[in-house]
Design the sequence.
């Protein structure tokens, strides 16, 4: 039994945890979202002055799989090899929340009406929070694409935004997922090989080292922040349960619980989500470096091949063509990659700043609120009022 | 006027006018009790006239009796106007024995039960003034108000009392006599080695009470000594309905760790937990006015060496509970359902049972909170280290610094969580555990009373049987056995009287004990809640400090 109503609508703009310049020529946002039993429907809303679109303002409904399709089309496009492809949004995952709600429904008989209502409210709030987060992440992806000078012009992107029918992309089936898995294995093996090649360019060599270490550390911090916040939420849940066993309920514990839960939720948003996002972004940056590295290796191999061909005086033209192609590819990537990586750094620093400041401010706000609450309660209890 | 009123105490009207109104009322109240029926109508009308002269009210007696209920519902300090009324009566009219000797304590319902029957004892039917029956109604109103108040006390089991109640309770505490005996238990030390090792605790007493040899003294005691004390007190006093505070529970696992010499935080925590529990236990024992008088208690506090209590094997916390349950089982197996004359006991037993359930549930939840907080503390520490690593690999200098600052903040927060978990535990969880045990002991008191009742009923039955036997002998005309039967009847009549008296005595004791327990509980919870909130407050203040320091670092990121 679904204790929660199946349809959740969300119509207000959400805070984006990535700092992006919005450009009047193309503005994308998710204006609404509908959570159904096993899928989420996002309403993608576009405002644009670009001539490519039939109208200046329009909306379409998209599902998660269509976002993935768009992302993958970027990754597979050779033209975009020199750019950091904005990481795809994670799949909406309400399983845990749904399970909890179900358990609550089953255990309804064993608790008082008050306890039940309270816990239901709490779980519904959790569901809503997850929902909001998944919407935000899908939105961030689209905004990043829209903000990118090259990607925003992508045809698939325009189709994604404008085509008001179902794009008929299905999620990958088992066979395809297995293929992907092997591809990834090969890629990471290759990646190691490529990374081993010392880069002539100091900038890229430095970036390579930096990103490798950074990525690993962000991964670690992300996992640990998740665990920490989970404990925090459990403790807040306990306080909630304790508070709900008593009536008349003094304001203290119910409000204190709300504050505790809010602290955990804000930490989640400002810290955990930030780290998660940059985990994915740093991976995308690594991917770029890998592609460049790959191109470099190919270029160097082509050079060697050309030398050999010239020495043997056999298939020289072919070798020259190959070498030209490799050279162009490599240089094209290098050119854009440098800027991309600089932008990545700028974005990263700005996002961390924004979120850390907001985190500190929120923590202060909650602590001060809690303090006031406690002071007034103690005052009354001690008879000072 | 004075002649009509027929009172030796009755001063001439002129004098009376000078007396405080209360006194006048008191005298008139007495008239109601004492006046012979024939003069009642006259005296009452005269009284009424007099009263109207003095106070301009028609029905002053009524006003007088209206006072007590009002006072009680406000839950005031013990020394309220009604008390004065009675004492005034007492001091002025020493010859009047019908006035209850000590009705001063309005909060002891027994006191009220005495006056209540009195008016009815006097031929109320002949009383023409309605005031008389009103008194009785008003007294029962007083009782029911008091009853509600007491139930309110018993329902405020959690730390979530209604605030006004707390307020009043504290006032009451201040007005009581200061109890000058401080006990502290400190310096747990391991004595001996291996499996025969034990922890010795220093028990320090500080007092000005004259029954002790000196003002400050210290002894060393081990856990089994405390159990031994409980056993001795229990043996002597529990059958009289006294509430003997139960000792902390034995813990084989905990003690084994200590014995084996495992020096880890969990065994340190165990020792601290036990030390605190023993301290609370002793403090409860000595704050019981009757138990304090017991020589065993004094000996426990003062004597250098105590004989080793060997029979405490049976009397661990679990053993104690088992004992209680046995008594409860015996009670439930009683075939004759006790005809509960006194509704108070019925309701109280129910309250105690409900409360115990409630506390158990709460205790489970608090333990969950403690565990989650400990978990949170651990995870925060791990996270802090991770952030520090992240900061060191970040190549933007300002961001790098901010991240390492963040790591430090999280580290300090971890410490806070740790302290908070400990606070949750010691202030909150242990308090609940104590009261779950105590409520069990309260139930034990009620069971003792049941046993006494059973004994009395059994004696009544036996007496009945003896009487029947005598009747049979008379009918069968066997004079030789008759004398023996008569002797037995006399014997059992005496027993019935004795057991009935004992039952009434134990009922009174249990009632008193439970009322005292409720008060102590309210005080205890109040105190602990305040302590808990104060530590929460401190945490929040620290949090503010840490984040305040961090914020400029975050803002400095470029």
Sequence:
């Amino acid at each position: 039994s679904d204790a929660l109503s199946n349809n959740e609508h969300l119509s207000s703009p959400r805070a984006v945890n990535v700092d992006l310049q919005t450009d009047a020529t193309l503005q994308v946002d998710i204006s609404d979202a509908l959570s159904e039993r096993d899928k989420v429907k996002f309403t993608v809303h576009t405002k644009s002055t670009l001539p490519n679109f039939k109208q200046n303002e329009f909306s379409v409904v998209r599902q998660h799989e269509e976002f993935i399709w768009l992302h993958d089309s970027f990754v597979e496009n050779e033209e975009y090899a020199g750019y950091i492809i904005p990481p795809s949004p994670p799949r909406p995952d309400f399983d845990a929340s749904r399970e909890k709600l179900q358990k609550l429904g089953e255990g309804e008989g064993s608790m008082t009406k008050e306890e039940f209502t309270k816990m239901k409210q709490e779980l519904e709030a959790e569901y809503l929070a997850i929902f909001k987060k998944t919407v935000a992440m899908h939105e961030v992806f689209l905004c990043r694409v829209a903000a990118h000078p090259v990607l925003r012009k992508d045809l698939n992107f325009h189709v994604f935004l404008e085509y008001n029918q179902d794009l008929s992309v299905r999620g990958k089936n088992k066979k395809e997922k297995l293929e992907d898995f092997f591809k990834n294995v090969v890629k990471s093996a290759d990646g190691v090989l490529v990374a081993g090649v010392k880069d002539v360019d100091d900038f890229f060599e430095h970036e390579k080292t930096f990103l490798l270490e950074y990525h690993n550390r962000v991964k670690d911090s992300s996992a640990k922040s998740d665990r920490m916040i989970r404990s925090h939420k459990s403790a807040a849940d306990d306080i909630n349960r304790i508070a709900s066993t008593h009536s008349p309920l003094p304001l203290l514990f119910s409000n204190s619980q709300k504050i505790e839960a809010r602290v955990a939720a804000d930490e989640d948003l400002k810290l955990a989500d930030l780290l998660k996002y940059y985990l994915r972004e740093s991976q995308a940056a690594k991917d770029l470096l890998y592609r460049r590295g790959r191109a470099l290796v190919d270029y160097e191999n082509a050079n060697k091949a050309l030398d050999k061909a010239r020495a043997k005086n056999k298939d020289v033209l072919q070798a020259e063509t190959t070498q030209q192609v490799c050279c162009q590819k490599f240089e094209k990537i290098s050119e854009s990659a440098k800027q991309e990586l600089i932008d990545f750094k700028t974005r990263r620093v700005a996002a961390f700043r924004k979120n850390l400041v907001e985190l500190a401010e929120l923590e202060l706000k909650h602590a001060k609120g809690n303090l006031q609450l406690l002071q007034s309660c103690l005052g009354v209890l001690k008879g000072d009022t | 006027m004075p002649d009509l009123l027929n009172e030796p105490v009755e001063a001439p009207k002129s004098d009376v006018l000078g007396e405080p109104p209360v006194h006048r009322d008191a005298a008139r109240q007495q008239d109601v009790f004492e006046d012979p029926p024939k003069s009642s109508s006259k005296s009452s009308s005269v009284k009424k006239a007099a009263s109207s002269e003095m106070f301009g009210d028609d029905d002053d007696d009524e006003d007088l009796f209206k006072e007590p209920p009002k006072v009680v519902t406000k839950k005031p300090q013990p020394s309220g106007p009604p008390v004065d009324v009675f004492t005034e009566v007492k001091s002025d009219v020493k010859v009047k024995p019908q006035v209850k000797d000590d009705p001063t304590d309005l909060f002891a319902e027994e006191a009220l039960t005495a006056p209540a029957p009195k008016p009815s004892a006097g031929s109320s039917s002949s009383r023409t003034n309605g005031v008389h029956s009103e008194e009785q109604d008003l007294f029962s109103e007083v009782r029911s108000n008091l009853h509600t108040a007491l139930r309110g006390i018993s329902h405020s089991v959690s730390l979530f009392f209604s605030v006004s109640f707390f307020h009043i309770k504290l006032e009451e505490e201040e007005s009581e006599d200061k109890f000058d005996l401080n006990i502290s238990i400190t310096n747990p030390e391991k004595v001996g080695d291996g499996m025969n090792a034990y922890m010795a605790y220093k028990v320090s007493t500080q007092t000005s009470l004259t029954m002790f040899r000196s003002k400050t003294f210290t002894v060393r005691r081990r856990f089994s000594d405390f159990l031994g004390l409980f056993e001795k007190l229990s043996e002597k006093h529990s059958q009289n309905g006294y509430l003997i505070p139960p000792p902390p529970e034995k813990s084989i696992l905990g003690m084994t760790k200590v014995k084996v010499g495992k020096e880890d935080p969990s065994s340190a925590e165990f020792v601290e937990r036990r030390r605190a529990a023993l301290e609370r236990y002793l403090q409860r024992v000595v704050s019981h006015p009757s138990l304090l008088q017991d020589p065993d208690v004094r000996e426990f506090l003062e004597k250098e060496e105590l004989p080793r209590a060997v029979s405490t094997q049976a009397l661990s916390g679990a053993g104690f509970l088992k004992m209680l349950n046995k008594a409860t089982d015996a009670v439930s197996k009683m075939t004759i359902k006790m005809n509960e004359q006194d509704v108070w006991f019925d309701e109280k037993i129910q309250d105690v049972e409900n409360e115990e359930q409630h506390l158990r549930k709460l205790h489970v939840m608090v333990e969950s909170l403690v565990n989650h907080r400990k978990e949170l503390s651990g995870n925060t520490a791990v996270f802090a280290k991770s952030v520090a690593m992240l900061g060191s690999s970040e190549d933007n200098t300002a961001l790098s610094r901010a991240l390492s600052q963040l790591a430090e903040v999280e580290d300090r927060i971890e410490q806070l969580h740790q302290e908070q978990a400990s606070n949750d535990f010691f202030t909150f969880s242990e308090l609940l555990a104590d009261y779950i045990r105590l409520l069990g002991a309260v139930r034990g008191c009620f069971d003792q009373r049941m046993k006494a009742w059973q004994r009395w009923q059994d004696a009544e039955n036996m007496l009945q049987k003896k009487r029947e036997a005598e009747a049979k002998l008379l009918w069968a005309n066997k004079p030789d056995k008759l004398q023996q039967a008569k002797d037995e009847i006399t014997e059992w009549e005496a027993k019935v009287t004795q057991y009935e008296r004992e039952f009434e005595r134990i009922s009174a004791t249990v009632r008193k004990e439970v009322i005292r327990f409720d008060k102590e509980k309210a005080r205890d919870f109040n105190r602990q809640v305040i302590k808990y909130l104060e530590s929460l407050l401190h945490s929040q203040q620290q949090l503010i400090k840490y984040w305040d320091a961090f914020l400029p670092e975050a803002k400095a990121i470029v």
Summary: The longest strand of chain A covers residues 26-35. The two ends of chain A are 49 Å apart (CA to CA). Residues 1-17 of chain A have pLDDT under 50 and may be disordered. The beta strands of chain A are 26-35, 40-48, 57-63.
